[in-house]
Amino acid sequence: MLDELENWRKTHYTKDVSLELAEKEIILGGWVRNFRDLGGLKFLNLQDKYGERQVTIKKGVVPDDIFNKAIFGYQDCIMIKGTVKTFNKAPGGVEIIPTDIKILNKTPEKLPIDMTGESISALDLRLDNRALDLRSLKNQAIFEIRGEILKSIRKYLFNNYFTEITTPKIIGSATEGGTELFPIMFFDREAFLTQSAQLYKEQLSGVYERVFEISHCFRAEKSHTKRHLCEIFVLDIEMAFADMSDILRILEELIHNVIKDIRKNQLDSLKLLKMENKTLVPEIPFPRYTYDEIIEIIDKKCDIKIEWGEDISTEAYRALGDELPGYYYITHWPMSIKPFYIMPSKDPKYSESFDLQMGWLELTSGGTRVHNKEQLITALNEKGLNPKAFDSHLRTFDFGMPPHAGVGLGIARWLTFLCGLEDIREAVMYPRTPERLTP
Ligand code: AMO
To answer: 26 to each of 17, 21, 69, 98, how far by Cα in Å?
Structure first.
């Protein structure tokens, strides 16, 4: 028989149960992380969204009916009413001696994945059971850090006169060139899921001057790497009356500030992930290398040849990461491998574009944009795109579009790195990859 919630309400989260509450009566609610029955003594680790506390159930100390009722399965959903006692060896330096218990929901005898923290189940199995898996202390730490990143990004950008925008995710035609789009039915017409807020954020930089959006984008790439997803969450920034150099400065200051906030507000999460000595506040400005300098480093130091004009291969990035392990910029990429909206350099072989790298990992791309309509139409034609398909976008360039520049940063890529994770899927609550559509 399961208990009813009735008028029981949590008085605290586990993290708030500290020595100051000694001898006070509290109500906690959560799940059974661990349960050991030693005969006359039972130990229960109750976890909630913020961590865990120990509940000690000793025969003769707790009422007999409560002692007898205290038989739990892993991840049973329970509430405990009890008194806080000082106990050095327990998490938080306290234990709870129960006066009453509610068992609100039971779990099967055997859970599909390990939830005690003693072993780590295979990632695919964990993802199959994600809502359960997300309760692990490691996942709690990862997603607390993610929350801090988003909060801190907003804080920094609002303090710097940016306006938060939201742009459509259902679009009528390609944003970035027609490839990698997911088609959908929009009533009786074909439409697409957006692959980037690019065009809308450019348009809105001509309205609100400094804009940002943090939102989903969709990439129909059949990539099977540890850094590619089909549904991504991207920070998009766009600034008017600015060029690439302004974005380089804003972005490094943002990264610097966000990591400072993570260390200030989420040090325990970093510690749980054993990243407290690795995820350090980086010095700014970040080193800047041109594409030409980078392919030379890859050639001279890594002994890998990149033909001028080619993208940098994964193998070359991996080797480069050994040479340049921190944050650094790669600027002035060949125009031939950049999208139509990127401004060519004075020497038009090159472009006013950049990537922010973290070692081997690409975190962002961005650059100065073309703001002249005729030049943009020429660029579309040169990339083999039909300017007619961009008609409504191009029209906005008739009405005084300012010079502008911007950047897009993949949140999950950055989180993967900040938390020292192996696979980007670990940095997303419900990842979408070519194989995974559920849960
Ligand atoms: P880009 O296509 O480089 O640029 O995307 C921006 C950033 O998003 C992340 N990202 C991905 N992360 C996981 N899986 C993927 N499949 C994936 N694709 C991209 C990366 C990448 O750096 N409109 C431009 C940005 C701009 O110029 O402002 C754009 O979308 O971290």
So the answer is: 9, 9, 19, 9
Amino acid at 201: K
Q: Are 103 and 3 in contact (CB under 8 A)?
A: yes
- Ligand 1, closest atom to CA 355? 22
Radius of gyration, alpha carbons of the chain: 26
> Is the shortest distance between the CB of 368 and ligand 1 below 6 Å?
no
Residue 106 pLDDT level (bands cut at 50, 70, 90): very high
Report the interhelical angle of 137-159 vs 244-265 (nearest 10°): 130
Fold of 133-287+324-427: BirA Bifunctional Protein; domain 2 (3.30.930)
- Tell me the pLDDT of the chain averaged across its residues: 96
User: In the chain, what are the domain boundaries?
Assistant: 14-105, 133-287+324-427
Shortest-distance Cα residue to atom 21 of ligand 1? 364
The model scores a pTM over 0.90: yes
Q: Which two tokens stand for residue 426?
A: 């670990």
Asked if 82 and 55 touch (Cβ cutoff 8 Å), the reply is: yes
What are 235's two structure tokens?
């920070």
Q: Using CA atoms, how far apart are residues 131 and 121, in angstroms rounded to an integer?
A: 14
From first CA to last CA, the distance across the chain in angstroms is: 30
Name the residue of 232, 239, 247, 314 whose CB sits within 8 Å of the most ligand 1 atoms, as the mutation to test its pocket. 232
β-bridge pairing 353-358 and 327-331? antiparallel
Q: Is 42 in the pocket of ligand 1 (CB under 6 A)?
A: no
Residue 116's pLDDT is 84
Fold of domain 14-105 = OB fold (Dihydrolipoamide Acetyltransferase, E2P) (2.40.50)
